[in-house]
Amino acid sequence: MKKIILLVLALMVLIGAGVGGYVLFGPKHEEVAESDEPQLPVKPTGVPTFVSIGPLVLPVIRDKRVEQNILLQVSLEVYGDATRESVRQLTPRLNDAFLRALYGDIEAGDVMQGQLVNVNAIRDKLMAASEEVLGVGVVWDVLIQAVTQRPAM
């Protein structure tokens, strides 16, 4: 009986020494970076180019009828001629992404403050949609040039 107890005790000491050695001398974990936030690209210097995205017409539908129509005139701030041309070529995809981003939110009231349009909420939705289509760092700002609201007839 004493031999079994001594054997179990010796085995526990060996296991403890192995775990301790692994913790002290095993592979080191990399230190966490100073910031977990993704680093945004640095805004390029130079003259920005503004690409106009044709008027977006959004109907506000409630109670199975159109209450009003919202007309938005939007421009995207980009840098460089190649970037401007790639944005112009992808204008149909941008229009589609913008309409998808806004259509359901207008009906749900997420971008409306009562009967008025919340321009900051729309700008944020359009910026996210442009990053989805073009990638991060291509469009630096979304400029809403005009908002027109007209009641439906």
Structure commentary:
The chain has 153 residues and is of the alpha+beta class. It is 44% helix and 28% strand. The chain has helices spanning 2-25, 81-89, 91-108, 119-134, and strands at 49-62, 65-78, 112-113, 116-117, 141-151. The strands form two sheets. A three-stranded antiparallel β-sheet has the order 1-2-5. It has a two-stranded antiparallel sheet with strand order 3-4. Strand 1 and strand 2 form a beta hairpin. Helix 3 packs antiparallel against helix 4. The mean pLDDT is 80.
Structural class by SSE content: alpha+beta
Write down the secondary-structure element order.
HEEHHEEHE
The chain-level mean pLDDT equals: 80
Strand % is 25-35%
Contiguous helical run count: 4
General form: elongated
Q: Radius of gyration from the CA trace?
A: 29 Å
Question: What's the layout of helices and strands?
Answer:
Elements: H1 2-25, E1 49-62, E2 65-78, H2 81-89, H3 91-108, E3 112-113, E4 116-117, H4 119-134, E5 141-151
Antiparallel strand pairs: 1-2, 2-5, 3-4
Helix pairs in contact: 3-4
Characterize this entry briefly:
The chain has 153 residues and is an alpha+beta fold. The protein is built from 4 helices and 5 strands; from the N terminus they run αββααββαβ.
